[in-house]
TrEMBL record:
InterPro entries: DEAD/DEAH_box_helicase_dom (IPR011545), DEAD/DEAH_RhlB (IPR044742), DEAD_box_RNA_helicase (IPR050079), Helicase_ATP-bd (IPR014001), Helicase_C-like (IPR001650), P-loop_NTPase (IPR027417), RNA-helicase_DEAD-box_CS (IPR000629), RNA_helicase_DEAD_Q_motif (IPR014014)
PROSITE patterns: DEAD_ATP_HELICASE, HELICASE_ATP_BIND_1, HELICASE_CTER, Q_MOTIF
CDD domains, per database record: DEADc, SF2_C_DEAD
Source species: Shewanella maritima
Record-level GO BP terms: response to temperature stimulus; ribosome assembly
Regions of compositional bias (Polar residues) in chain numbering: 423-433
Protein name: DEAD-box ATP-dependent RNA helicase RhpA
EC number: 3.6.4.13
């Protein structure tokens, strides 16, 4: 089905065409009519399904049909996202869709000065894309009122709750205009997400674009068994010998990410890093270098797992498997988007085999394994035998050492008298021969 079927304004259709959109995705086909009718929506949609356009296009259409003057420190549409990167990405998409409209879009997130943002907010906006924490700061500081909000969108709702934004979201719901349309998009429906939906939605239209926790058919998945201490060597070798470019690598911790980037750069592989401890300016520069092809590799923690829309991303590498099996789906969803193919590579140490089993059970398929000569991982049974052998040797050596010590002690005692007992008040001695 084409976008022309829903009678969008010509300005919007022209912008959509410039974005290269032709056929609607499943979530767009289901969500757009419901949103155009003014219904609340509860949608299950993975990243890469086109959900940003699914909620943004009908909102822009309503703004185009019913233009209003900007109101001081207020907005018509409020979109909440879990991370700065996703907020910036969503705002950029909305600006692209509305480039032929007289549209004001502001992004509000931490890592930048409050004063700069408050000055922009004074004049009002048609659309504000924000992270919950920084948005609440502006509300408390009276820099922003939500009394005229017509559309409230929660994007990646499950992720926001996972990151601890539940309390902030509840406070925002209390502050926002009660006469509004609510749109909640989530990759998974945990009990917390269901409770949030119950709190904010009114008879919502239920949309399930894809079976939950499935991976795209356009993504080829492969596992490389490797010892934890040799993962960096294997990554460098694969990037070099296979000539990989545009590689997004996920690590378990910020420290691991920083260390890996330093070592890859020493190997001559230009790499950048993105994680929560980096300043916002640094994160933007890193992402820009990577998207422009100046950096071959971008190493990231879970903060970049969702929301980032990196065009033509070829490879996603799980340097460390995620702690939650569900996050595997979100990570590899960065590649193989918009009908293009991609490759998801996972380095799996012996200690991560159980996590791999959980992932395979979740996605309902077994992932192909490739062993690289020189990086083989010894079997658990062989390892246990080697450990037992070392322990037996250690015990044998200890017994031998004890016997030697006894012989030396006996030699040193020869010719000496030692106390061997006590009878009445007389101490008895014996000469060692």
């Amino acid at each position: 089905m084409k976008f022309e079927s829903y009678s969008f304004a010509q300005e919007i259709l022209s912008a959509i065409a410039d974005c290269g959109y032709k056929e609607m995705t499943p979530v767009q086909r289901q969500a757009i009519p419901a949103i155009r009718r003014g219904e609340d929506v509860l949608a299950s949609a993975q990243t890469g399904t086109g959900k940003t356009a699914a909620f943004a296009l009908p909102i822009l259409q309503r703004i185009a049909e019913q233009p209003k003057a900007l109101q001081h420190s207020n907005t018509r549409a409020l979109i909440l996202t879990p991370t700065r990167e996703l907020a910036a990405q969503v705002a950029d998409n909305i600006k692209d869709y509305g480039k032929n409209l007289e549209l004001t879009v502001h992004t509000i997130y931490g890592g930048v000065k409050m004063d700069t943002q408050s000055q922009k907010l004074k004049n009002g906006a048609d659309v504000i894309v924000a992270t919950p924490g920084r948005l609440l700061e502006h509300i408390v500081a009276c820099n922003l009122s939500l009394s005229t909000v017509e559309f409230l969108v929660l994007d990646e709702a499950d992720r926001m709750l996972d990151m601890g934004f539940s309390s902030d979201i509840q406070k925002i719901l209390q502050a926002v205009n009660k006469k509004r349309q609510n749109l909640l998009f989530s990759a998974t429906f945990s009990s917390a997400v269901k409770q949030l939906a119950n709190d904010m939605l009114n008879k919502p239209k239920l949309i399930n674009a894809d079976k939950q926790n499935t991976t795209a058919e356009t993504v080829s998945q492969v596992v490389y068994p490797v010892e934890q201490r040799r993962k960096r060597e294997l990554l460098s070798e694969l990037i070099g010998t296979k000539n990989w470019h545009r590689v997004l690598v996920f690590t378990a911790t910020r420290e691991d990410a920083d260390t890996l980037v330093k070592e890859l750069n020493l190997d001559g592989i230009h790499s950048v890093v993105v994680h929560g401890e980096k300043a916002q300016g640094s994160r933007r520069r890193a992402l820009r270098e990577f998207m422009e092809g100046k950096a071959r590799v971008m190493v990231a923690t879970e903060v970049a797992a969702r929301g980032l829309d990196i065009q033509d991303l070829e490879y996603v590498v799980n340097y460390d498997l995620p702690f939650l099996a569900e996050d595997y789906v979100h990570r590899i969803g960065r590649t193989g988007r918009a009908g293009k193919t991609g490759v998801a590579i996972s380095f799996v140490s012996r200690e991560e085999e159980r996590t791999l089993k959980d992932i395979q059970k979740l996605i309902g398929q077994k992932i192909r394994r490739i062993s690289v000569p020189g990086y083989e991982v010894s079997s658990r049974e062989l390892l246990l035998k080697q450990i037992q052998k070392r322990r037996s040797f250690a015990k044998k050596k200890q017994r031998s050492d004890n016997a030697g010590e006894q012989m030396i002690a006996e030699k040193n005692l020869k010719g000496r008298h030692v106390k061997v007992g006590k009878k009445s008040n007389n101490v008895q001695y014996k000469k060692i021969k």
